[in-house]
Every structure is written in structure tokens, then in C-alpha cells.
């Protein structure tokens, strides 16, 4: 008995020494909780709200033998007591977890009431998620300067939150496009439930399938999936869909520029991890290049706002809400997907908080001819409290 205790204490001591050696080099805001319950910072400062739990000495041994992102993810997804079990052949394809048929009920566990799966906007730093998403949709509509009767297009419309909000509060005719059959079906049902059939439509397909001419276009959280090489086609398509002087709001995640293009193309391990396990095929640009491509396609950029602190808070709340519904989430999506979703949301929150990830909202107009843009001279319109519908009701 005493020999086992001594061995376990020696292993705990070794683990603490390893973490103490790594902490000044990693400079992380994460903490580590060892199998005895003790908690250590994985950096030099005060750790943030997220903790990596080490279930056994074998986990540390495994990571020392194979210190790769893939090995770390396998341990995160593993719920065995020893942490040594390797993924079996019949486990789900890791790459596809983000796009598998996860039921809408699973998203309800951590998203807001409108199922908005993008960055919230916190007018109150301690505000709740539902209000932040309402404020985000209100801000997008103000940036687009939506007016009653205008034709509005939402590229990658998700579960239809922004579509219906814009129609109800700004009086527009709204059309959305989504690749997800689940989101398409949900949005169609929501349109009927709200009695918006004459003002809101939704289309199952890619953004390249959209047709017509629109006064205003929003692309929220979609460009990350386009691929940098496809930006000319992407912005060319959006330009073709807008009327002259029409307004585009492009909302997308980015990462910072590097000294050279070669350095930018060389991804850090955490970005390779995201590409492999979270967003296969997705790419994050730096904002300078995105603006350059927009200008090449005759968009005039008027406003640029960084929201990374807002997204850090959003992902933190998503992670906490999903963790609080652990049992129900596992029933809906399975143990492995649940564990990787929690890890992904926690890592995203830290990434935005530390500046590894950025997110920007860019407002631009189509400039098909010379002359003024028609945009206001100041930003006063962005901070009017009431929506047009609220103003009319008053």
C-alpha cells in the first residue's frame, strides 16, 4: 500500500515538474488539473476559465512519446479511465464531426433562442447570450442601413435568425441561402410559424446558386469556408448580386498578417489542428488581403470593426452552456462529439481572447460608376437605440 502511494506521489511530482517546465514557454491561459484534483497554471499569469483535466499518468506518458495535435485530440475524445485507449476503426470520421447530422436539439443546448451560430455583440460585458445575439442582429441591420421594402440577401443564413429579424424589425423582403438541409427545413418552418411567407424565402444550395438583384447583402460566418483562392469568385458573385451603391456586410474570422507571405502560409500547430478536425477545407485570411480583394472587385470599404473580444465571450458562454447540459448532449450527439465540441469551443474562446484569432465586420458598397457612395458622413446611425419597427410603434 505504502509503495503504491509513494509511486503515485512520485508520478504526481514528475507531472508537476513537467508542467512547471512548460508553463513559461507555452504562456497559455489554460490550467491543468491532475488526477489528484490539484490545478496548475499552464502559463506565467493567472489562468483563464478553462482547464485541461489529466485522467492518469499514462496520458502524460503518451503525450511525451507522441507530442502531436492528433494525439491530444484522441485523448480529449477518449473517455476511458486510463486515457490510453486508442481510437477504434469503427469510431466516427473525426473530420466530419462539424458537418454531420447533429440534431437541432443539440444546438439548442448551447446557442441562443434564435439559434444564431456566430459571434454575439455584448453591449454589456456581463450580458447574457440571448441579448447579445439580438444586439448583434440589430447592429448588422443598422450597418446595412436596411429600409422597409428593400430586398435583403443573407448568404449562409443558418437557422434563419437574421432573415426573420430583419423582416420583422426592418420591414425588408429577405432571402436566405444555406447548404444545410436541417437548417433549410427549420427555417422554412420558422417562416411559416411567424407568418412571414410573403416576405421571407429560403433556398437550399450554395451561394453561387443565388440569383437576382439585392439592395443589401450580409455574409456572416461563411467566408471562412470559401478558401482564399476562391475569394475572387466569391466577391465577384456578391458584386453581381448587388445593385449599384448596394451595401455588403462581410463578417468573418481572420488571423493576423505575418512579415512575409511564406510565413503567413506556414500554419501554427493550433491552426493545423482546427483545419484537420474542426473546419476541413476552411482557411483564415488576414484582413489586409481580404480588403485588397474586395477593392479589386470594385467594392468601396467604408467601415471595419474588430469583434474578437465579443467572440471570446460568445465561445465561453457556448462552452459553459454545453458543458452544463452534458448528459443530454451525449444522448443527442454521442460522447465523442460532445467531448470534441466542448474542447473546440474552449480553445476558440482562448484563441480569440489571446489574439491568435481575430474577427472583423467589413461594410462596403458596390461602386459600379463614379460618384458619391450614398453612405452617411458619420457613424451616428449605428448607435440609434430603436429599430424602425419600434419607432413606428411609438
Draw up the topology in text.
Layout: H1 2-26, E1 31-33, E2 39-41, E3 51-53, H2 57-65, H3 69-77, H4 104-108, H5 129-144, E4 151-155, H6 161-170, E5 173-178, H7 181-193, E6 200-204, E7 214-220, H8 231-241, E8 242-254, H9 261-265, H10 269-277, H11 287-296, E9 299-306, H12 308-324, H13 326-333, H14 335-354, E10 358-366, H15 388-393
Parallel strand pairs: 1-3, 4-5, 4-7, 5-6, 7-8
Antiparallel strand pairs: 1-2, 8-10, 9-10
Helix pairs in contact: 12-14, 13-14
Structure description:
This protein folds into two domains: 2-93, no CATH class; 104-393, Rossmann fold, CATH 3.40.50.150. 44% of the residues lie in helices and 16% in strands. It has 15 helices and ten strands. A seven-stranded mixed beta sheet has the order 6-5-4-7-8-10-9, sandwiched between helices. Strands 2-1-3 form a three-stranded mixed beta sheet, covered by helices on one side. The model is unreliable at 1-6 and 80-92 (pLDDT under 50).
Annotation keywords:
15 helices; seven-stranded mixed beta sheet; three-stranded mixed beta sheet; 10 strands; alpha/beta
CATH architecture annotation of the largest domain = 3-Layer(aba) Sandwich
CATH superfamily of the largest domain: Vaccinia Virus protein VP39
* Order of strands in the sheet with most strands: 6-5-4-7-8-10-9
Low-confidence stretches: 1-6, 80-92
Indicate the proportion of strand residues.
Answer: 15-25%
* Biggest pleated sheet: 7 strands, mixed
Tell me the helix content.
40-55%
> What is the CATH C-level name of the largest domain?
Alpha Beta
Distance between the termini: 76 Å
Number of domains: 2
Beta strands, count: 10
Determine the mean pLDDT. Answer: 84
Number of helices: 15
Radius of gyration: 23 Å
Structural class: alpha/beta
Q: CATH topology of the largest domain, which one? A: Rossmann fold
Categorize the overall geometry: globular
